[in-house]
Write a structure and sequence with these properties.
With 600 residues, this protein is α/β, with parallel strands linked by helices. The protein has three domains: 15-332, ABC transporter type 1, transmembrane domain (ABC transporter transmembrane region fold); 337-428 and 509-600, P-loop containing nucleotide triphosphate hydrolases (Rossmann fold); 436-507, P-loop containing nucleotide triphosphate hydrolases (Rossmann fold, 3-Layer(aba) Sandwich), CATH 3.40.50.300. It has helices at 15-27, 30-63, 71-118, 121-126, 129-171, 174-221, 223-228, 232-285, 290-332, 392-399, 422-427, 443-448, 456-465, 469-474, 492-506, 522-535, 571-577, 580-597; strands at residues 353-360, 369-376, 381-386, 407-412, 415-416, 429-432, 510-514, 540-545, 556-561, 564-569. The strands form two sheets. Strands 6-7-8-3-9-10 form a six-stranded mixed β-sheet. Helix 1 packs across helix 9, helix 5 (129-171) packs antiparallel against helix 6 (174-221) and helix 8 (232-285) runs antiparallel to helix 9 (290-332).
């Protein structure tokens, strides 16, 4: 599996790659982007015009103070209008661009969410849930920070610096522009160098933050296991170890901020002092008026604030790009299972399933299945039995196409499932797994999840068929009872019946029962078993079982051992062969008789 902080080629994403990935999400709102940028430019033009109007007012009052009620009032009014325009255009820009920023964040988050669901089971078995969720959270926040600082701080600051420099060159001594540009160049170079150094610390902080969050989430998800073994202190120590590393990295980050801020302030202070000295000298020499001194001072004040923000904005942009890097790297993860071009949509109520000479291994070094060759005619039931680790559950994963076969093919109605769209393939299959995981929502939601468009009457009917309706209606909150994270508030049998109900509700032509009644007591098992055989009567059914009593009615039984089919036939035929199946049956019957004699 590719690491989450790398792209598909194994190298870290460049900032330019991240920006190119983001741009299409913004450009879908191109009209708003253009209007917002126009407001930005007009606001800066108005802002730069303020010192010039202020200069005119001061010069007029100095030369002709008796005309204060004439021209100065008009200039003062213009001064007020320019200030109002600067603020109003800025607010308009923010209002227009809000849809762009929030829309982009929403689309990126949704696309990442969808992409994670497209990635194969192999990826999800290796991922760290806490780290991935934290990467997405930081990444979406990073988009907001990037847009805010780049479009509303960096771009306007560069524009304002250019306009003020042009005015200084045109109206005053070239030295004003030279000092301004030299100060900006030194300031920018210092900021970039120190920020790049700091960025390594920030990236390390992100790694450690994700690691700590992963440990916390993993521990909480396994709350009962922690309690069973009394390992609260052990878990706290592991979490504190991760947080201690993060703490050291965070302290180093704060120190580097101090170095950066101090250096930036020193550069600004020197530049501003030189410019004020040049302006004061010009007034003394008679080459500049008091209005010029006021204008230059106003320009410096206007330039100082955004230039100071420029450093902070650059830091925030680099941090935002670092935060976005991991989220976009998730999008670089290639889905192991993809629809072939022209894959057709499966649409049938009569599905024959065939495994044709299938070899498979999760790891190339360890093969799990060897030459699996069997067929399930439409509407018939095939059971697969064998010891743990024989490869039984792997069959259901291949049928769902969670993995590709190493060789051979899995076919439905003689079509290779690789030529069928994944969506339509999985819509035709329903499974009751051995380990049922539920959503932290109501019982109704979890059953209705089998077919979200189902009516309430259909959901109730499915619950009745799964023999769980009485249990639900006896609960204080009834259908609104929350099952807890991963369904931990329900017993194993109750979770299994919810899983059976939602599979019944899905109503697929192909059914898979993977140890479907393993968590049930004997009486409930017999009742549900009869119901399972009833609903599978006209469906193509694959039963994966360890308990042989659950498969005696199957049309055909395969006995697997170490990834191979070693026996096949009906229950009666296999007993007559007196082979592995017959020995397993005898052993389980003896255990059942012992359980009946010896009470729990």
């Amino acid at each position: 599996m590719a690491t989450l902080d790398s792209n598909k080629n194994g190298s870290r994403r460049s900032d330019w790659q991240t920006l190119k990935t983001l741009f299409p999400y913004l450009w879908q709102y191109k009209a708003r982007v253009i209007i917002a940028l126009s407001c930005l430019v007009l606001a800066k033009v108005a802002n730069v015009g303020i010192p010039l109007v202020l200069k005119a007012i001061v010069d007029h009052l100095t030369v002709a103070p008796h005309l204060v009620l004439a021209v100065p009032l008009a200039l003062i009014a213009l001064y007020g209008l320019l200030r109002l325009a600067t603020t109003a255009l800025g607010e308009l820009r923010d209002a227009v661009f809000a849809k762009v920023a929030q829309g982009a964040i929403r689309r990126v988050a949704l696309e990442t969410f969808n992409h994670l669901h497209k990635l194969g089971l192999r990826y999800h078995l290796n991922r760290q849930t806490g780290g991935v969720t934290r990467d997405i959270s930081r990444g979406t926040r990073g988009i907001g920070s990037l847009l805010s600082f780049m479009l509303f701080n960096i771009l306007p600051t560069i524009l304002e610096i250019g306009m003020i420099t042009a005015i200084l060159v045109t109206m005053y001594d070239w030295r004003f522009a030279a000092v301004t540009l030299i100060t900006i160049a030194v300031y920018t170079a210092f900021t970039i160098v120190v920020t790049e150094w700091r960025n390594n610390t920030r990236r390390a902080m992100n790694e450690l933050d994700s690691s700590a969050n992963t440990r916390a989430v993993d521990s909480l998800l396994n709350y009962e296991t922690v309690k069973y073994f009394g390992n609260e202190k052990f878990e706290a120590a592991r979490y504190d170890e991760a947080m201690a590393k993060w703490e050291r990295s965070a302290i180093q980050n704060e120190k580097s901020i101090g170095i950066l801020n101090s250096g930036q302030s020193a550069i600004i202070a020197v530049g501003v002092t030189v410019l004020v000295w040049l302006a004061a000298d010009g007034v003394v020499q008679g080459t500049m008026t008091l209005g010029d001194l006021v204008a230059v001072n106003a320009f410096l004040i206007q330039l100082y604030a955004p230039l100071n923000i420029l450093g902070m904005a650059y830091r925030e942009i680099k941090q935002a790009l670092t935060d976005m890097e991991k989220m976009f790297s998730l999008l670089d993860e290639e889905a192991e299972i993809q629809d072939r071009p022209g894959a057709h949509v499966l649409d049938t109520r009569s599905a024959a399933v065939e495994f044709r000479h299938v070899d498979f291994g999760y790891d190339p070094k360890r093969q799990i299945l060897f030459d699996m060759n069997f067929a399930i005619p439409a509407g018939k039931t095939l059971a697969v039995v064998g010891s743990s680790g024989a490869g039984k559950s792997t069959l259901s994963r291949l049928l769902y196409r969670f993995y590709e076969t190493g060789s051979g093919s899995v076919r439905i109605n003689d079509h290779d499932i690789r030529d069928i769209s994944q969506g339509s393939l999985r819509a035709h299959i329903g499974i009751v797994p051995q380990d049922t995981v539920l959503f932290n929502d109501s019982i109704y939601y979890n059953i209705a999840y089998g077919r979200p468009s189902a009516t309430r009457e259909e959901v109730v009917a499915a619950a009745r068929a799964a023999h769980i309706l009485d249990f639900i209606e006896a609960m204080p909150d009834g259908w609104d009872t929350t099952v807890g994270e991963r369904g931990l508030k329900l017993s194993g049998g109750e979770k299994q019946r919810v899983a059976i109900a939602r599979t019944i509700l899905k109503n697929p032509p192909i059914l898979i029962f993977d140890e479907a009644t393993s968590a049930l007591d004997s009486r409930t098992e017999k009742a549900i078993q009869a119901e399972l055989f009833s609903i599978s009567a006209d469906r193509t059914t694959l039963i994966i079982a360890h308990r042989l009593s659950t498969v005696v009615e199957a049309d055909e039984i395969l006995v697997m051992e170490q990834g191979r089919v070693v026996e096949s036939g009906t229950h009666r035929e296999l007993l007559e062969k007196d082979g592995l199946y017959a020995r397993m049956w005898a052993l389980q019957q003896s255990e059942a008789e012992l359980d009946a004699v010896v009470p729990d």
